[in-house]
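Good day; I would like, with your permission, to put a structural problem before you. A protein sequence and the structure tokens that stand for its backbone fold form the material at issue. Thank you for your consideration; the sequence and its tokens are set out here:
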Amino acid sequence: MTIEDEQLYSAVKWHKKTRRPDAVRLGDVTRELMEKRISPQQAKFGPIAEIWNQLLPEELRRHCKIADISGGHLKVLVDLPAYMYEMQLCSSELLSEMQRQCPRAHIKKIKFVVGTKALA
């Protein structure tokens, strides 16, 4: 072996010895995510979906769904403009009832958006 080969070999060998970060189990990461992020949000926003389903008649429920809750805004996806209009007519009553029944969510506004996503 030439000197260059030996230098290259020792450089590669040294590089392989560098310590990699320890592997983390996916279950541990998932549990931590659930405990620190998802569970508190679920506790805060979970009742919103339940209250929403109680407040809306079945006919309207089939044509809309909660898409997002952030920054005090409740975003509702509606499949047809006619149903969006109906939802807008009753939005102030919906908002006040949501605020009354779920004050921890701090909902300030309900925004209705016509969307094409499946409302399953």
Summary: The radius of gyration is 26 Å. The mean pLDDT is 81. The chain has one domain: 25-114. Helices lie at 3-17, 26-55, 58-61, 81-89, 91-101.
